[in-house]
Write a structure and sequence with these properties.
One of its GO terms (biological process) is glucan catabolic process. The structure is a single chain. The strands form nine sheets. This protein has a six-stranded parallel beta sheet. A six-stranded mixed beta sheet has the order 13-20-19-16-14-15, with helices on both faces. With about 800 residues, it is of the alpha/beta class. It has three domains: about 65-405, TIM Barrel; about 440-650, 3-Layer(aba) Sandwich (Rossmann fold); about 690-800, Immunoglobulin-like, CATH 2.60.40.10. It is about 30% helix and about 20% strand.
């Protein structure tokens, strides 16, 4: 439709319907091609029949240095508009940025949260977002010399961070599905919601390998295993980008955060990462490399430093590995404030030096635009940075714009933003993802599933009826009724014959016991108790924030946050009086189910010893309450599996499963050395039996090297999914290797009484080891293949020699 708009000279009626003024005489929208620079000539960059490289080359040749630098600037987006009712006004700030800086990008134009101070009243709903982005795009095109469209980047780690968007589970929940195809389907939905509102780049997926759950951003990680993260990263990238960026349904993916961000010293956000070359290449880099090979177009540098070199100035990382090694041809964003932080790291005396170090290391775009403006121009003028290098970075950004079709079709259709049917489809998908993410940790004496015939049930706890604690960090304000809490989800599964009593009992962090009496009373009067405890990443307007947008932890914090960007922890126990309340209710002798809603693994030793049934729902998103109800009442047989080991205490950290063999997990004198729950662990309402494994080498196949076949039977009385996990151990190698490492997995439905055969074909890279200097090779020798239902329960083994 929009291409026809241009071919029909962007007719007045359609412009009016789109909320745009009719094109004036001599405007760039008059012809059946767009005369962006208004010179009356069809320049090569305006010619749709030419290739992207040809169009980029011509456009760059016409630009001044100042205009080139402008294309690399990505200032904050939400200050660029004001909303008055349903009217959108572009601010003087936006006009100044276009006039004086020639900006090429904006970040988070549609973002709404307490940090941006954009609310349901002052922020953009989907219809207004489409109107605002069209208005913005038109202003930028008409008020820049060459008419270059603007690129809009949006946060989208588990849904578009904008009003009216679908909120899915956070990344730790997504990976707990062990279903990358499902998460890829989710990413398609996210891309559609971003693109239909006028966005072009989605920040996600987060590919940080987790090594310390005290880290505030644990919820954003897919887990502790590089292969698993790779599979989810590839699925997310392909879902966002699709096969055609000009489709109007897809967006560019940004990989975060490059690199080694998820293993900070002391669990402090942005802290130093202590890791060597071999571990970096075998653990940290593989998910990024896989996502780059899947076609990811942008990468974001991370705040931390590795071996004394901040990632934002690490040429070896950003150029030698990413570009020269992996042939990445997209562009690199700084993280917000990451360039300025080079001064904070003590490796740059001022922002000019920070600009030089970051740009020459390989950072193309300045998110926040506080460093590159003027400094980059001066460095070029002084001959310290070759203009050809500047041209190369600018070309990368412009190529993205051409490939997205922004020079041919810069607007969105305001009549077809997000229909109610599409939103309902996405909500149904959110429920499906949420229930596949739920992990059953304990089910003593078949406490679960609960009977719908129960006469009374008490739903107790700080997360039982808390809207924002269901969602995690990086979520926008929600309209009333848009999020299904656990209490509502339970009510939705019960009829009028059941009395449901609710009591909050306590808060996440507060030391007050004022709500205990009400909670105990509700429990005494009920046949069953569901306690909903855990954590919170819910920002509010009482919070203070760093310049990066991270929450500033202060002694007088008034909210319940114990997770979310900036909120690191020193302990991993349930905070406040949660455990004490749980102990008092358990003492009543009622059947108790613990539902955990949280963003990081918590040490729940007492609960594990004393509560008969425990369900881990992570932050399950806006349909989380219904998904939890599906599991509690047996409408869905849980099959989520942990992607992060759950420690007994912080004293065990780090406690990831794929440790080197020399680092034997022997017991401490005062505690076991094993985690409370291991990587890959999760229960079902049925039972599975592993009955056989075989392995054979494949000859003459470039895409696969070894075929492994496993037989699994469902010996229980209910249909269910089993997550079959295949691990590998190299018996002798040139350097230390793990006791086991995941090389394949499959979530497989198995009917009650059925036996299925599952075949994995392992490519050569499953057996390769890093050799140093960027080289990989298979080292001949014996390998042990191990299969089972978790990393600690590999029941069957088969050796093979290569």
């Amino acid at each position: 439709m929009l291409n026809r708009m241009y071919k029909a000279c962007l007719c007045i009626a359609i412009f009016s319907a789109a909320g745009l003024a009719a094109p004036a005489q001599g405007s760039p929208f008059k012809k059946n091609w767009i005369d962006f620079n208004k010179n009356g000539v069809k320049d090569p960059y305006e010619n749709t029949t030419l290739s992207t490289p040809e169009r980029v080359k011509d456009l760059v040749s016409k630009m001044t240095v100042e205009e080139k630098v402008g294309q690399l600037l990505a200032p904050l987006g939400w200050p660029m508009y004001e909303r008055k009712g349903n009217e959108i006004l572009l601010t003087s700030k936006l006009k100044e940025e276009v006039r004086n800086r020639h900006i090429g990008m904006l970040w988070a134009f549609m973002r709404a949260d307490p940090w941006t101070e954009r609310t349901l009243v002052s922020g953009l709903n989907p219809q207004l977002a489409a109107k605002a982005t069209n208005q913005l795009q038109r202003y930028v095109i008409e008020n820049s010399r060459l008419g270059i469209p603007i690129l809009l980047a949006e946060e989208a780690p588990h849904g578009h961070m904008a009003i009216g968007a679908t909120v899915f589970p956070t990344s730790v929940g997504l990976s707990s599905t062990w279903n990358p195809a499902l998460v890829g389907e989710m990413a398609q939905a996210v891309a559609l919601e971003v693109r239909k509102q006028g966005g072009h780049v989605a920040y996600g997926p987060v590919l940080d390998l987790l090594r310390d759950p005290r880290w505030s951003r644990t919820e954003e990680s897919f887990g502790e295993d590089p292969y698993l993260i790779s599979e989810f990263g590839v699925g997310y990238v392909r879902g966002l980008q699709g096969s055609n960026l000009k489709s109007g349904r897809n967006v560019i993916s940004t990989l975060k955060h490059f690199a080694a961000y998820g293993m900070p010293e002391g669990g402090h956000n942005g802290g130093s990462s202590h890791i060597g070359e071999y571990e970096m290449n075998e653990y940290v880099y593989p998910p990024f490399k896989a996502a780059v090979e899947a076609g990811a177009r942008t990468v974001m540098a991370s705040y931390n430093e590795v071996d004394g070199i901040p990632c934002h100035s690490n040429r070896q990382m950003l150029t030698d590995v990413l570009r020269d090694g992996w042939k990445f041809d997209g562009f690199v964003f700084s993280d917000l404030g990451g360039l300025e932080l080079l001064k904070g790291h003590g490796v740059a005396a001022d922002y000019k030096e920070a600009t030089f170090k970051a740009f020459t290391a390989g950072v193309d775009a300045d998110l926040g635009s506080n460093c590159y403006h003027k400094n980059l121009e001066q460095l070029v003028a002084e001959g310290k940075i070759d203009v050809a290098i500047l041209d190369r970075s600018v070309a990368r950004v412009l190529a993205a714009k051409f490939d997205l079709g922004l020079f041919d079709n810069p607007f969105v259709d305001e009549k077809e933003v997000l229909s109610s049917s599409v939103i309902q489809e996405h909500r149904a998908l959110a429920r499906r993802v949420a229930r596949e993410s739920i992990v059953l940790l304990k089910n003593e004496k078949s406490t679960l599933p609960l009977s719908r015939e129960v006469k009374s049930i008490a739903v107790i706890g700080p997360n039982a009826d808390n809207v924002y604690n269901m969602l995690g960090d990086y979520t926008a304000p929600q309209r009333d009724g848009s999020v299904i809490t656990v209490l509502q989800g339970i009510k939705n599964h019960l009829g009028p014959q059941t009395t449901v009593r609710y009591a909050k009992g306590c808060s996440i962090r507060s030391e007050s016991e004022d709500g205990f009496a009400e909670a105990l009373s509700a429990a005494r009067q009920s046949d069953v108790v569901v306690m909903v405890m855990g954590g919170s990443s819910a920002r509010d307007f009482s919070s203070k924030y760093e310049v990066t947008g991270a929450v500033k932890v202060t002694e007088d914090m008034k909210n319940d946050m114990e997770c979310g960007e900036g909120v690191d922890r020193a302990t991993l126990n349930l905070m406040g009086k949660q455990e004490k309340l749980m102990q008092q209710i358990a003492a009543l002798g009622k059947p108790v189910v613990l539902v955990l809603v949280k963003g990081r693994p918590l040490s729940i030793n007492w609960a594990n010893d004393n509560i008969p049934a425990i369900v881990d729902a992570w932050y399950p998103g806006m349909e989380g309450g219904n998904a939890i109800g599906d599991v509690l009442f047996g409408d869905y047989n849980p099959a989520g599996r942990l992607t992060m080991s759950v420690p007994r205490s912080v004293g065990q950290l780090p406690v990831f499963y794929n440790t080197k063999r020399a680092a034997n997990r022997s017991d401490y004198t005062d505690e076991k050395g094993t985690p409370l729950y291991p990587f890959g662990y999760g229960l079902s309402y049925t039972q599975f039996e592993y009955r056989g494994i075989s392995a054979e080498k494949l000859q003459g196949r470039k895409d696969s090297l070894v075929k492994v076949t496993v037989r699994v039977a469902n010996t229980g009385k209910r249909d269910g999914d089993e997550v079959v996990q295949l691990y590998l151990k190299q018996l002798v190698a040139s350097h230390t290797t793990p006791n086991k490492r995941l090389v394949a997995f499959r979530r497989t439905p198995v009917k009650a009484g059925e036996e299925v055969s599952i075949t994995f074909t392992l490519p050569a890279k499953s057996f390769e080891l890093y050799q140093g200097g960027g080289k990989w090779a298979i080292e001949p020798g014996k390998f042990m293949l191990m299969v089972g239902g978790s990393s600690a329960n590999t029941i069957l083994e088969q050796s093979i020699e290569l």
